[in-house]
Amino acid sequence: MELRDVPGPKARAIIARDKQVLSPVAGRVAEFVMSHGRGAEVWDVDGYRYVDLIAGIAVNSTGHSHPRVVQAIQQQAEKFLHISADYYHELWVRLGERLAGIAPFQEEAMVFLANSGAESVEAALKAARYYTKRKFFIAFLSAFHGRTMGALAFTASKAKYRANYFPWMPGVLHVPYPDAYRPVLLSKPGEDYGETVVRYIEEQVLGKLAPPDEVAGIIVEPIQGEGGYVVPPDGFFPALRRLCDKYGILLIDDEVQAGVGRTGKWWAIEHWGVEPDIVCTAKGIASGVPMGGIIARKRILEAWPPGAHGNTYGGNPLAAAAALATIDLIEQEYMANAAQLGVYALERLNEMAARHPSIGQVRGKGLMLGVDFVKDRESREPFAEFRDRIVEYTFRLGALMMGCGPSTVRLAPPLAITKDLLDEGLEIFEEAIRLAEKDFA
Ligand SMILES: Cc1ncc(COP(=O)(O)O)c(C=O)c1O
Fold it and tell me: What is the pTM of this model?
């Protein structure tokens, strides 16, 4: 395994042009200039091949340019590209039926479609306020829900996302996410840390800050993504559901990163047998064509009259064609692949943890896996520079990976990745850890 001298000349030339015209606000993680991709492999413009362990942040669920997704888009492109959400077309209806059919609740579902994760969050917030006629929301520290002015009020993973944008939407109260590895609240003896967080919400927030009958919804990621691939303890979601039921608060499940088969189930919240009221989806839903939306209990979205919300592109025919093909592929093959390879990868990462004391914790479900690096295992102090060095080395060794949270490297490859490619990627990852260990020895 050799460290490459990347970027090459063609990539360098394009990056130089990029800097002239594209705002630096798009913070890049590596100097990777894509030429093309297939499955879980991508190539840059100088011909360097990479194993893709991040899938454009959990987006290329079926892999790059899956022939069935490409064919579905091509066939639709020949017919029409757009007709606006003010008219009807059948693919939009079929996608609505398909999404309603995989809703993670028994009650009948209804769907609203948009173009991104942030827009799906905006739709969920507006629908929740409209339906409940209540004002407040509860969200979690370290959450990421997007960057539009509404969603931004909920995003709390990095101060730089918020700097200079105040005032944001009022009425949003943040509480700690149930991260049992780095808890910040005191549990009662025998109490699951997830239950501790829910007790805190009830006693401190509903009891002292926001009257429960004025709280519209609690928005939560089933596994915190940008915040560090943090998996909540098993007691959390059942307790949160009970709390919402007690006070008539809507449980809004942001599955933008964790959903659509990534964790081995359609929706990550299903791992805890809990039914949300509104699900936000985007990213993996259409294999890379921009699409987002919400799936909610029918009574919530039925109460939304024409014009109360909307957009131009919702249900866009190209995105709908891509989404339908994606959902079929995930159902037929890739959700099972994610579940199976997820168990295998978790095992391999735990073996790595036994060899490398720099690893504090390995966590995740399916192909949403995080490896948390620490200064020492006892203090669990995050080691951000070490993590950043690993991401840099994996790039130079031939894999695309990204960090998240204070000190985690995330693995979110296409759900279609093969075991051989996953093995290759994991070997690159371990070599990067070895190199970083030498640097910081
Ligand atoms: C959980 C979650 N919600 C919302 C978003 C925002 O999605 P988008 O970037 O498509 O607006 C993201 C993006 O990373 C996310 O991970």
Answer: 0.98
